[in-house]
Amino acid sequence: MSNLNKDILFLLFKELQYDSKSLFSCLMVNRLWCETVIPILWRNPWRYNIKYKNKNNLFNIIASYLPDDIKEFLTKQETKLPTVSHQSLLFDYLSFCRSININTINTIISIGSSLAYNQFLLQQEFYNLFIKKCSVLKYLDMISNENQIFYFPEAGFHFESLCELKCDTSINSSYFYGLARICQQIQKIIIVNNINTENNNFGIAKLIEVQKNLKYFEWHDDHEFYGPGLNPYKEILLALEKKADIINHLEIFFLYTDRSLQKVLPEFRKLKTLIINDFSYFNEEQLKKCVYRDLETFRIEHYDLKENSIIIQNSGGHLKKILVDYCDSYAYDYYENFNEYSLILIRKIYENCPSIEYLSLIFSPSKQHFIEFEKLLKVCQNLKSLLLIIYNLDETETDEKILENGKQVLNILIKSAPSNLKEIRFFDHIKFSLEDLEEFFGNWKGRSLSILTSDSLYEGDDYLKLINKYKNNGIIKSFRHECSTNVGDMDFKI
């Protein structure tokens, strides 16, 4: 493999662009691999899980590009700079870069000096370097930014090509007006709403309004209080409504009810991804207007079973992911129709989602629910990953009954699980006896299975001995205990 053509290597490594561990390993193979990997790593060097404050390498590389007179001036200001000149670098690293992350750069700058004035000087020089050296800029993360970076010489030309933007609402509207004047080809916008004071977000709304190719939009509230009468969403929703015919990914986490969403959401008829935290303030007629025939991923924060069923019924049969973020069991105690609506949801899934691959499912341990669950497994033959939450509203349920329900689940999986199913997640509402688990492993043949559970029960010696036995036989690929958050996150890899 080390003799592969450089173009082929580039395509292979590009598939690993989010996997820094693998890419860093590839650097060490030979010179050709190193030369191929470096441009990929440096395209967006901020995306990797690195503690930049403890790493001097990135700071040293960027600082080495500074002109000698600037270095001399900064050194006189008692700023610590590397002595290596940029001519001694193996690669022209900054020429590969297509991204600026304001927060990470500010963290790196603190390596050079702890003084605010020196950090400001370094900040200006670093930004100037990126503007000059980066031929085009595709990604900008300006969370917590206070620097009008687009006013640097030549910045306008480089920012015209911006494709992705991440920002927060603490930034002054004038910044967004400046970006709106230059950047009109942004495809992906992520906004963190982290301000508690009145802010109508006219600048962000204007930036959204001028985009010609906006496909992906996220909004996340990151605080817990608004004063009476404040509405931070209205201008944003009105601007998004004008882009409803081109947006295909919509992710919204609102902490407060906004009635404008009831009017705007049905307009996004070309959505492929809908992630939303609450449908509870939609009535049935409003939900029926939300028809998304191209929908492939559907995810909500709270499990509004009835509302979910309506959206799924009105989808076009292309759903591949139905996901729900984990919710503590108390949330269902006040759901009088939980048994009825959870049954309806299972039916709507197997009736309308023949292509489903990733599924989060919650239901009661009744005979009818188990029957419908088995039907779902038989119909949805593309299912690859399954998250199960079995919740009984009966608080008097005994341990024996819980184990009996677990046995029922395992028996259904043995009889009806599709051949593509390679990953199962369980919350601790479901428990398995040692004997039932061994019978299940013994009947699960020909497929290597990964299991994730939030129950520490399976870390006992007897369970570990059993699990290791079937790992050695190749039946079990992985069996791990994780926190509930990780178990419920279908993007968390087992």
From TrEMBL:
Gene3D superfamilies, alphabetized:
Ribonuclease Inhibitor
Judging by the UniProt lineage, the source's domain of life is Eukaryota
This chain belongs to the protein called F-box domain-containing protein
Q: Which organism is it from?
A: Rhizophagus irregularis (strain DAOM 197198w) (Glomus intraradices)
